[in-house]
Amino acid sequence: MAREVTQEVFAAAWADGVLVIDVREADEYAAGHIPGARLMPLRTVPTRYAELPAGQPVYVVCASGNRSRTAADWMDSHGIDAHSVTGGTSAWARGGRPVAIGSHEHAA
């Protein structure tokens, strides 16, 4: 089972440049996402998880933490060091942290 991390723990990891995977849909991502996050909608995780680097932690976000928990658990069961971020992008934005708009940034 994947670990869940708090917004505070994630913010420190994000500042260090960790890999962030956003498992929301493209329209949600375009409306606002964590800067540097790569888009990998939840439904595509089983076919795209091989794109993730082995041996490197991956922080998974969605809107609130539900989809990210599902994705992180799946990734963890397939050998990816995945961490679900509690509260998701909504809590990130409510905390006054930066949010990028548009679909161009790291979208796949």
Quick summary of this structure?
Helices cover 35% and strands 16% of the residues. With 108 residues, the protein is α/β, with parallel strands linked by helices.
Major sheet description:
5 strands, parallel
Task: List the secondary-structure elements in sequence, H or E.
Answer: EHEHEHEHEH
CATH topology: Oxidized Rhodanese, domain 1
Shape: globular
Radius of gyration: 12 Å
State the total count of DSSP E strands. Answer: 5
Beta-strand residue fraction: 15-25%
CATH architecture: 3-Layer(aba) Sandwich
State the end-to-end CA separation.
26 Å
What count of structural domains?
A: 1
* Full CATH superfamily name: Rhodanese-like domain
Description:
- The chain is of the alpha/beta class.
- It has one domain: 3-Layer(aba) Sandwich (Oxidized Rhodanese, domain 1).
- Helix content is 35%, strand content 16%.
- α2 links the parallel β2 and β3.
Secondary structure layout plus pairing:
Blueprint: E1 3-5, H1 7-15, E2 19-22, H2 26-31, E3 38-39, H3 45-48, E4 58-61, H4 66-77, E5 82-85, H5 88-94
Parallel strand pairs: 1-5, 2-3, 2-4, 4-5
Jot down its keywords.
5 helices; five-stranded parallel beta sheet; alpha/beta; globular; 5 strands; 108 residues; Rhodanese-like domain-containing protein; single chain; Rhodanese-like_dom_sf; Oxidized Rhodanese, domain 1; Rhodanese-like_dom
